[in-house]
Model the fold of this input.
Amino acid sequence: MSTRIKKSPEYLKDYHCNLNVSSTSSSVKYPLNSVLSYSNLSPSYKSFVMSISSHVEPTTYFEAVKHDCWRKAIQCEISALESNQTWETALLPLNKLAIGCKWVFKIKYKADGTIERYKARGIPFTDIQAYRRLIGRLMYLTNTRPNITFSVQQLSQFLAKPTIVHYNAAIRILRYIKEAPSLGLFFSSTTTVHLKAFCDSDWGTCSDSRQSVTGFSVYLGNSLIS
Done:
């Protein structure tokens, strides 16, 4: 065991950071609790936040069916679709292919943090609206995560007719964000109110459209804000 005194990195002296990482999992390179503290939350809201963090929503059908609560949620969704006559069971016609379906699983919580119910919903892979909503949220996130800007911009070019390849690429961005939740922009606590902007472009370098690629950065003082 090292006896060396631990202290915050010198380059973080001008930033508001909580570096309490004693309970951090070693599998996460940039853990959220390295920059986030729950000490100022009210007891009721802290209980709600901790309850959400302690439950995991499955990402695939095969993960969900291992648990009785999610199997019941799937059966309730199917029963609701049948009772509302949204669909009916039928034989697949010859020379036809069935459309794939992705199950989405969500936990609905009460105000005190306890679980109200488990929700399951089947979404076809051809759901263009779901893809557009996902890309829209990722575009909003680029305000503080400029490292995903180029990838999100590329995927936003296929909003009219996305494919499963584009959807999987968007999900991969989400996995990257989840693995590095605290990797974002730092805002200095003593910055000057001075706005600076820089831009650059490369002519005809986009491999998809053969158009020019333009980049820009905006600083408030010494803090990158866009």
About this structure: Residues 187-226 form one domain. The CA atoms of residues 26 and 179 lie 11 Å apart.
